[in-house]
Amino acid sequence: MSRESVPVSPVLALAVAVLAVSTSAILVRFSDAPSSVKAFYRVLFTLALVAPLAATRSRAGVARLSRRDLLGAGVAGVALALHFGAWFESLEWTSVAASVTLVQAQPVFVAVGAAFLLDERVTGRAVAGILVALAGMALMAGADLLGAATTGARPLYGNALAVGAAVMTAVYVLAGRSIRRRVPLLPYVTVVYGVCTFVLLAVVVASAGADALWPYPPREWLLFVAMAAGPGLFGHTVVNWALGHVESSVVSVSLLAEPVGSTLLALALLAEVPGALTVLGGVVVLCGIGVTAAERR
């Protein structure tokens, strides 16, 4: 892990990133555009913010990436597009609390994927954390089946989409993990965001037609930019930077604050009160994720 002197405290940067990503679900809910369109413009505007920095500040540059690294970044970009598409759609059908909690389960799926695909050892505590997280997910699903979920038109469907989005995040992490050890942050995310943008554009055109891309009132464009600048640039891009300066387990556990922040914002700004079983299941999921993430150093 890099310990060189940096101009910004990594802990402070991580705190800002967690606050930024906590606004993501709220911004998505505020927008009236189709889910795929929101996802497309979020990534497009994030790419527009990151690409100039990559061109001016990174000497290695995208052009110097090997074919293997470009292929890996491309796979990560496709996975990220599927993640955004599934998660944004999830927020249309279930509560912010359930969606954001379930999508944060990616450390669980990273641990499972690394064990089966990369033959990595999984400790007993990590296995226990995975089982606890899965139990929490089952509890949240049970709340939906029993009609105890108080928000969302189709909570079970929305929760399933959130879990799918978490799986895609795990694919994104596993695809990019070895590349990030060799490639600087900005060239890597430029390729990933570029591929992600192209895939989401294809999804929008195929599902809703090119006419769905415009026109939108100024309020919608401001929300698209806010999604890119807040959760995109100051959120996930800063998280990627922080991974070079603090332990990955610290980053993973810190991100567990996102569901709490998003739920409180949804309560204050959307008057959205999750059901008791949803909250209980969410707490169980977060405990399982925390144990799993802490074991994967």
From TrEMBL:
Q: Which residue range or ranges hold the EamA domain?
A: 11-140, 157-292
Q: Which UniProt keywords apply?
A: Membrane, Transmembrane, Transmembrane helix
Q: Is Transmembrane helix included in the keywords of this UniProt record?
A: yes
Would the keyword Membrane be found if you checked this record's keyword annotation? Answer: yes
Give one Pfam family: EamA
InterPro entries for the chain: EamA_dom, EmrE-like
Which top-rank group of organisms is this from? Archaea
Looking at the UniProt entry, the stretches that span the membrane are: 40-58, 70-88, 94-118, 130-150, 156-174, 186-209, 221-243, 250-270, 276-294
User: What name appears for this protein in its UniProt entry?
Assistant: DMT family transporter
